[in-house]
Design a protein that fits this description.
The chain is mostly helical and 149 residues long. The protein has a domain at 6-83. 54% of the residues lie in helices and 0% in strands. The protein contains nine helices and no strands. It has helices at 6-9, 12-18, 22-35, 44-53, 56-64, 69-81, 105-116, 119-122, 133-140. Helix 5 (56-64) runs antiparallel to helix 6 (69-81). The protein is elongated, with a radius of gyration of 31 Å. 10% of the residues are buried. The mean pLDDT is 76.
Length: 149
């Protein structure tokens, strides 16, 4: 029933009443895991808990793939607290697509190296031009002779 067009026609009260049963929520969570690969990293109990907290319209967006679970969590918190939450999935349309690609092994190693390298080793050492005025003036000119004072 929850994965057919009938769910759109039931009232919010009926929807809430059906989701009070643990077995129903667990079956829904299992079907969602089969439908969306990324949900397999979550437990059935965790998915069941968020399905229970979600309104009917939020559930429909999760079911249809419009929202990810992170977006669902953010929308639940928004409705509960009245604050606006933005998750990474909300920014997919505005950020560069390369940001969402998995980094290569070389990039991962470089990132790990930079994470554990002290700042003083990362800084470029200043390079002095040997023909600059500073070095030529020091070597050619002698300062005032202080022995005669």
């Amino acid at each position: 029933m929850f994965f057919t067009d009938e769910v759109e026609n039931i009232s919010y009260y009926q929807y809430e009443k059906l989701l009070k049963e643990d077995d129903v929520r667990e079956k829904i969570a299992l079907i969602l895991q089969q439908k969306h690969e990324y949900l397999k990293e979550y437990t059935i109990n965790e998915l069941s808990m968020y399905i229970r907290k979600a309104d009917k319209d939020l559930f429909l967006k999760l079911k249809d793939g419009v929202y990810t679970l992170d977006q669902l969590k953010a929308r639940i918190a928004e409705r509960k607290t009245g604050l606006k939450y933005v998750v990474l999935d909300d920014l997919k349309n505005t950020l560069n697509p390369k940001f969402f690609e998995k980094p290569s092994k070389r990039q991962e190693n470089l990132a790990a190296y930079e994470m554990f390298t002290p700042d003083y080793k990362k800084k470029e050492k200043p390079r002095h031009d040997r023909k600059s005025h500073f070095f030529s003036s020091v070597s050619r000119e002698r300062g005032p002779d202080i022995r005669n004072y």
